[in-house]
Design brief:
There is one protein chain. This protein is an alpha/beta fold. The chain has 3 domains: 171 residues, FAD/NAD(P)-binding domain (3-Layer(bba) Sandwich), CATH 3.50.50.60; 131 residues, FAD/NAD(P)-binding domain; 76 residues, FAD/NAD-linked reductase, C-terminal dimerisation domain (Enolase-like, domain 1), CATH 3.30.390. The protein has 9 helices and 26 strands. Strands 3-2-1-7-19 form a 5-stranded parallel sheet. A 5-stranded parallel sheet has the order 9-16-10-11-12, covered by helices on one side. Strand 4 and strand 5 form a beta hairpin. Bound molecules: flavin-adenine dinucleotide. The site of flavin-adenine dinucleotide (FAD) has 36 residues, from helix 1, helix 2, helix 5, helix 7 and strand 22.
Length: 410
């Protein structure tokens, strides 16, 4: 029988970790909560970083919590503290500052770190940037203010957001992707063209199907990049969006099941008693598609944080949400709902491209497994998105004609 108040340790103070801490405290005034992060800040809004990059909002608007908020709730926030190991037998977390923090329940909410550019010349050149943290954003802004040309590299959301930031700050911007079009796992050539047209309207030079072979630095900064197809692209800075590697390394030497992320069931519990995972790093069981997957979205991480807090305190609440990613890009909105995977052979899809507002086009693609809607991708008008989310959530059975009608649902 436990003779002490319950002890919770949370690795990662992003939206998943901080939401979990907040809810643990709401449900139990006596427990101890340690919330650990290697970053120097309390929770800030990563979703706002692109607008901070563009100069549309100031840094204070990016912050969500301050240190006082944690003190008022008796949440021990340990910033600039890197967790170096976890011992699940002894139930203890070890940090780079020599702390040993015992836990009754542990939450791994470590998110992911950006993949670096690994080509000749890149290590010797300054001004090659990832775009994940507030500190990344501040350094990119500093460099943008003294640059004339910029290259955004990659086919991810992050690369498009970098491209958007460079172009809005009036840099001569090139956007280079290895694939045939942006977001190749969700889109198709038609949808890719819709996106390209939006970027081109903002003066971006778009190049697909090529990749950086080497970076040629001059005085330590990128002067130009050489591509595999022989292009030479002049640039003062390079923004990298080559995907994320989920932060599971801290769990090496534990019996936790790790695939792409930390594998958890619908209660966000791992295979080791007392250990949970939430947010980007969780490879969770999604009952709308009956399989495990990871999801890098703000809403998903926040919802995980709420549910996992209940379960860490002894509850049995399944995670049943439909993950949704919405983002403004240039002058349109993009939404990805559920499982929107063009490369998934088990899914069939229908798509519609039509004129939209501000000279842009609307593009909608719907993904079905058997006769149920499981994924939605929308570029442009968001009308009908909430209804489509409900249809995914309810796992409604649809006839072929009904599927086509969903393309025009408002
Ligand atoms: C630029 C950008 C724009 C985005 N835009 C959108 C958007 O428009 N819409 C949307 O839905 N989503 C967006 N996202 C994704 C969204 O922000 C993430 O899905 C969400 O923030 C993930 O939250 P999390 O709590 O799981 O992890 P994170 O926010 O990644 O937090 C994890 C924290 O754990 C820390 N950590 C990791 N390992 C350790 C360790 N060993 N010791 C100590 N600390 C550690 C990390 O440094 C980090 O601070 C965007 C992301 C970025 C980077």
């Amino acid at each position: 029988m436990t003779t002490h108040d319950r002890r919770y340790v949370i690795i990662g103070n992003g939206v998943a970790g901080t939401t979990a801490a907040e809810n643990l405290r709401k449900n139990d005034p006596n427990c101890s909560i340690h919330l650990l992060t290697n970053e120097p800040y309390p929770l800030y809004n990563r979703v706002s970083l692109p607008r901070f990059l563009q100069g549309v909002i100031v840094e204070q608007k990016v912050m969500i919590r301050d240190f006082a908020w944690h003190e008022q709730r008796n949440i021990q926030l340990l910033t600039e503290t890197f967790v170096t190991g976890v011992n699940t037998d002894e139930r203890v977390v070890v940090t780079d500052k020599g702390q040993y923090l015992p836990y009754d329940a542990l939450l791994v909410a470590t998110g992911g770190w950006a993949n670096p550019l690994l080509v000749p010349g890149a290590q010797d050149a300054k001004h090659i940037y990832n775009f994940v943290t507030l500190d990344d954003t501040k350094t990119i802004i500093e460099r943008m203010l003294e640059s004339r040309t910029a290259l955004a590299y990659g086919g991810s959301f992050i690369s498009y957001e970098l491209c958007d930031g460079f172009a809005v700050r009036k840099l001569d911007t090139t956007w280079l992707t290895r694939g045939p079009y942006w977001l190749r796992n969700c889109l198709d050539p038609n949808g890719g063209e819709v996106i390209d047209n939006i970027a081109k309207k903002f003066g971006v030079e778009v190049i697909h199907g090529d990749e950086i072979e080497s970076v040629i630095p001059k005085n330590g900064v990128p002067s130009y990049v050489k591509t595999k197809k022989g292009r030479e692209i002049q640039t003062d800075m390079i923004g990298i969006g080559l995907g994320i590697t989920l932060n599971t390394s801290v769990l090496a030497n534990t019996p936790l099941e790790i695939r792409q992320g930390v594998v958890v069931n619908e209660y966000l519990e791992t295979n080791v008693p007392g250990v949970y995972a939430a947010g980007d790093v969780a490879e969770f069981y999604d009952s709308t598609v009956n399989e495990h997957h990871t999801m890098g979205t703000w809403d998903n991480a926040m919802a995980h944080g709420r549910i996992v807090a209940l379960n860490m305190a002894g509850g049995q609440q399944p995670y049943l949400d439909v993950p949704t990613y919405t983002s403004p890009l240039f002058d349109v909105n993009i939404a990805v709902v559920g499982t929107a995977e063009s490369n998934n052979p088990e899914l069939v899809s229908v798509a519609l491209r039509e004129p939209g507002e501000k000279g842009n086009e609307n593009y909608r693609k719907l993904f079905f497994r058997e006769n149920k809607l499981v994924g939605v991708l929308m570029i442009g008008s968001p009308k009908g998105r909430k209804k489509l989310v409900e249809i995914v959530k309810n796992q409604q059975v649809l006839e072929t004609a009904e599927r086509e009608a969903l393309l025009r649902l408002k």
